[in-house]
Design brief:
By secondary structure, the protein is an all-alpha fold. The chain has 7 helices and no strands. It is 83% helix and 0% strand. It is elongated and about 80 Å long.
């Protein structure tokens, strides 16, 4: 009886948790788009500044890195900004226009902790009323059942062996 109750609780927990993925992933993708837009503006301004003095962006970074301490620090910051822009632009290209099932497939593209944290802060859980939400809830329920069932099975084997060995 306890095993059934724990399995049901695990299934419900999985259903509730995974049913939230479609909406959360949509909010993440929206925030990702905003971040890429802002980084694009910053990178474009840097590229324009470099072009205005006859340098490529790489040459401008190299020149900054050979300057005084502030210029060197700015070179490191701008290089990191350009790298983040490239990484997030690639993530956005994969997620843009993707439905919730495709976003689940590309969940590994949702790794920017700053964006995820901000999306989570603004996120409001809701009861899934869409096909996607119900599908994710079903998968979450089955996953929860399987995880709890596997753990209970493992515990039964461990403690069953000890009891048999003691007898």
């Amino acid at each position: 009886m306890l095993a059934k109750a724990l399995s049901l609780a695990g299934g419900i927990t999985g259903a509730v948790g995974l049913s939230q993925f479609p909406e959360f992933s949509q909010q993440y993708a929206q925030r990702l788009g905003g971040a890429v837009d802002e980084l694009s503006r910053m990178v474009s301004e840097f590229e324009a500044d470099a072009a205005a003095v006859g340098l490529s962006p790489a040459e401008a970074l190299s020149q900054l890195s050979r300057g005084e301490s502030l210029a060197r620090a700015r070179s490191v910051t701008m290089a990191a900004t350009i790298e983040r822009h490239d990484r997030l632009s690639a993530d956005l290209a994969a997620l843009e226009g993707a439905g919730p099932f495709t976003r689940a497939y590309f969940a590994t593209r949702m790794t920017d902790s700053t964006i995820a944290e901000r999306a989570w802060q603004a996120y409001k859980p809701a009861v899934p009323a869409t096909f996607e939400g119900v599908t994710f809830a079903g998968v979450g329920y089955l996953t929860g059942l399987l995880v709890v069932g596997a753990l209970l099975s493992l515990l039964r084997r461990l403690f069953g062996r000890r009891q048999r060995a003691a007898a």
